Amino acid sequence: MKKLVMVGGGYGGMRILQKLLPNELPDDVELVLIDKLPYHCMKTEYYALAAGTESDQEVRVPFPKEDRLVLRFGTVEKIDRENRLIHLLGEEPVSYDYLIIGLGCEDKYHGVPGADVHTYSIQSMEKTRRTSEALNNLPPNSVVSVVGAGLSGVELSSELRESRDDLYIRLFDRGETILPMFPKRLSNYVQNWFEKNNVDVISNSDITKVEKDGLYNHNEFMPSDAIIWTAGVQPNQVVRDLDVEKDDKDRIILTNHHHLPDDENIYVVGDCASLPHAPSAQLAEGQGEQIASILKKRWKGEELPNRLPPIKLKGVLGSLGKKHGFGVMGETALTGRVARLLKSGVLWMYKHHSGV
């Protein structure tokens, strides 16, 4: 009996489960999923949980209930490639024949003193819960600083504004223009929304130090009652500790078939994989689909294609609270209620049709 072990039940892992269960897994292969939590979490919605506009349960999706799937709950401490073992905190190690690494990412603090100690996070369910508690317990007229004006920072700031109109919210942006990766019209739309809704966007910022009661921007101290860090991510520590070839962002370099160059039985999916596009749920799902197809071909003894087709991304949608949004679908830029309705529809479909 061979054992396929998947560490991390994120977006890529869920897609792999969809493609293998219930009927595409050979009788001689056991499938084991290891995750810290007993459910899949919709990480793209953590900003709403942190802001207090969605409940904990609304960002969960149950793992499939299948006889062929063994669920193990625990925290992965180390991957031992030599002995093909997954070491878990306080648990017995789990052996594997095939391994899929999908451990996701965590905050990257870029060496800013105090940032890892004095900021809140929305990179894991546990940390987002703590952030939510802190934000929703703030007294009236508190100051909240959000460091990092990428998609996560923008969505968190806008959702928090709708949740708490009494707060003074600052959004620190390193660039000249907010969301420069989007068309200029979208960037202007988001900037105007923040101006109308009294979110202070501080452009060309450089956070040099963080303390318990505030942060330094270009060495100017700015008091804050809560600071949320959304200014960059890096692969999980377990992945960073692996002795494998990585790119300049510490993501694992893979073959065309998504496995390690020196081990065709270890695949990497999602935020830990070095891919041509920036990490996203959509990219992880596309990659998960390809990994599942490769495994099925290998198990059937079929020849693998020399190169897999590029993963096609449909677009990006962002929210500005519950009524407004922005995004790009194909070559079409969208703003306002239509963009927000589209995002809501995509999320509804995912939540209610992601089971096996």
TrEMBL record:
Enzyme class: oxidoreductase
Entry annotated with the keyword Cytoplasm: no
Protein name: NAD(P)/FAD-dependent oxidoreductase
Alphabetical keyword list: FAD, Flavoprotein, Oxidoreductase
Family of this protein: Belongs to the NADH dehydrogenase family.
GO molecular function, one term: oxidoreductase activity
Keyword Oxidoreductase: yes
EC number of this enzyme: 1.6.5.-
InterPro entries xref list: FAD/NAD-bd_sf, FAD/NAD-binding_dom, NADH-Q_oxidoreductase
Cofactor(s) needed for function: FAD
Domain FAD/NAD(P)-binding, chain residue ranges per copy: 3-284
